[in-house]
Design goal:
Distance between the termini: 82 Å
Oligomer: single chain
Radius of gyration: 25 Å
Largest sheet: 4 strands, antiparallel
Helix content: 55-70%
Length: 387
């Protein structure tokens, strides 16, 4: 039995993408992890669609519907995969030149949207713009080549984007990031000029593997337990935000949180329960503040959130929601300990021009002041004398 080359290639690429999705879960709580997962899912979906299309073409008498469905998904979502690659790359860039980079993102979004509209209209109304089937045979439509050229241009544009703004990528990440557009472009070129060699998704899969080894699996800025940023990652984000704020980027906020009665959880329920508590609180913070905020574990049971929120009312609203979610978590576990968080926050004003270290110290003082108040209230509730 002879197995065609595309079957072997698609099988191993699909297996690789599934394994990467399973192994990269440790960074899934931060923005880079979410964008990386989205890129993996999209590439895997397109690879499956290509496989369905191939199967349908091979057996047109009985399975032509698979080819119709598979190729429709490919033509519909191919540009979205490029857009996902752009958003992932953007996660590794600092906030400098954000306005200059914005037109690139808009161009990719417009191309993806226009492509989806045209492909859908072509299929619904039978316009045969990009592809069609006659007597079970696949044919290219009148706009097939134009769309192919546009795809090539946008893949090249992705590489140009990285090269132009490579100074905005941290040195330790730069080489790994560049492999994504370069290998994607190489795969697209080979697919166009080498007959029956469909390796675009294979090239992207290899890029994702390299990104996993050089970034996702050993990112020194990620906390191994919670998947959010660690102290080093938080320091970098805070410095970036202050730099952007001083350059005219406006105000932002930073919030410090310390878990109340964490020691009692460890003492009464064990360290496994303590670890689970830290992970769940990190998940609550990601849920409440969203992936655009920089959320990290500052210490053993301390967290920090660097956010674009710049008014006190909105911050208080978010903090109240955190308290509510932690209460639900505590009640779900049936714990008597008053598990909660003490918070301190401050909005950074560029007119003050204070350093990251001084800003952090101010928030620390505010957090520990609230923590002392919480301890005092606990003593009063327990009938203890004031310390």
């Amino acid at each position: 039995m002879i197995i065609e080359g595309w079957v072997v290639l698609n099988f191993f690429c699909g297996l690789l993408l599934v394994l990467l999705l399973l192994f990269q879960s440790s960074t899934s709580s931060i923005k880079t992890g979410k964008k990386y997962s989205a890129l993996l899912f999209m590439t895997l979906g397109l690879l499956c669609a290509e496989t369905l299309g191939r199967i349908g073409e091979t057996h047109p008498d009985n399975l032509l519907f698979l080819a119709r469905f598979g190729y429709f998904l490919i033509f519909l979502l191919d540009p979205v995969n490029i857009l996902f690659a752009l958003t992932y790359i953007d996660c590794w860039m600092d906030n400098v030149n954000r306005k200059g980079r914005r037109p690139f993102a808009v161009a990719f979004q417009v191309f993806a949207l226009v492509n989806m509209i045209l492909v859908t209209f072509s299929q619904v109304f039978g316009l045969k713009l990009f592809y069609y089937f006659e007597n079970g045979v696949y044919h290219r439509g009148s706009l097939f080549m134009l769309r192919g050229i546009c795809m090539m241009v946008f893949i090249i544009l992705l590489a140009v984007y990285v090269l132009i703004y490579r100074s905005n990528i941290l040195n330790e990440y730069r080489n790994a990031i560049i492999t994504l557009p370069v290998l994607s472009l190489l795969g697209a070129i080979l697919q166009v000029f080498v007959a029956n060699m469909d390796i675009t998704y294979a090239a992207i899969s290899i890029s994702c593997l390299l990104l996993f080894f050089y970034l996702q699996s050993r990112d020194v800025n990620v906390d191994y337990l919670t998947g959010v940023l660690n102290r080093r990652g938080l320091d970098i984000k805070l410095e970036e935000n202050i730099k952007q704020s001083l350059a005219g980027g406006g105000r932002f906020s930073a919030i410090m949180m310390d878990v109340d009665h964490f020691k009692e959880i460890n003492d009464h329920h064990g360290h496994m329960a303590g670890d689970r508590t830290v992970r769940d609180i990190a998940a609550i913070l990601v849920e409440v503040f969203g992936q655009n905020a920089s959320i990290g574990r500052f210490g053993g049971d301390e967290f920090c959130i660097v956010s674009d929120i710049s008014d006190n009312a909105s911050i208080e609203e978010k903090i109240d929601l955190v308290h509510k979610r932690i209460k639900e978590f505590r009640e779900k576990n049936g714990w008597k300990e008053m598990l909660d968080v003490s918070c301190g926050y401050r909005i950074y004003d560029p007119e003050d021009a204070i350093s990251a270290e001084a800003f952090q110290e101010l928030i620390d003082v505010l957090m520990y002041r609230e923590k002392q108040e919480h301890h005092l209230n606990d003593r009063r509730k327990n009938g203890e004398s004031r310390a």
